Amino acid sequence: MSKFIAIVGATGLQGGSALKVLYAAGGYKLRALSRNPESDSAKSLAAEYPNVEWVQADLNDTSSLRKALTNVDAVFVVTDFFQKDTLEKVAAGDKDAEFAQGKNVVDAAIDAGVNSVIYSSLDSMKQLSDGKYAGVLHFEGKHKVEEYISSKADKIKGYFIHLGSYMENYVRFSRISPEDSQTVEFTMPLKPTTKLPLVDTINDTGHVVKYILEHPEECLGKVIEVSGGYYEAQEMAKAFTKATGKPARYVQIPYEAAGMDELSQMFKAIDEFGIFGGRSDFLEYNKEMDCAFVTPEEFWKNRNWDGPSK
To answer: Which residue range or ranges hold the NmrA-like domain (predicted)?
Structure first.
């Protein structure tokens, strides 16, 4: 496939993974798009990955995107519902704020003559739940972008990845037990026995992006789920103890503790319908990729654990 690849969200987990893997692979000319290429995170990555071109682009500004995608063959795109400005638009009543950003990238890519777009999408929880959970907006927005890309198949080739639940969330939602000050507790509004397709985002995502770039005909129009397997929440706690020797347990907290209605709905929907709708055929497909997805125990061994996230 194409060799000049642009990466939207290169300073984030998914885009950073694509940057890391494609840079290591060699043979690709890489352009990283950032709202602020002068940020500390962008400068740090620019130093780590010499010869990567950094370009300013704002997902709310199609003209900047059009310029940033000039001469590019393919673009990897991830949109972020939880950015401050997007959340502010949603709070003001604009439920399509994330979709608008994804559409802007797609339209700009088409205008710039980009051949292919790889988009990090998600299922519609509204569809998976038959309308019961219609308010999980960061799922709905991404799914709507996916549908929009598919509708432009005559103008740009669309490829889609669906990431499982981030293993990184267990770092974010961790604390030292108030009961014994020794045990690490992982706290989320999920049943301890709910099986989730987990992904080590920063290590796994880029390998799937690379696979798509190397197998364009095979992957065209397909959704490729990114995860090494299904695990219960309490299994992540057990893997932590095995990897670090530190006592740990999973603690389910109320759905309402998620803070936002959209997140409360998400956790309820995942408990009831799962991520990927419970599909497991992707596990066989993933074996064909020349990468080993990170296991929970490997994830904790690689973390150099120094305490709960602040």
So the answer is: 2-277
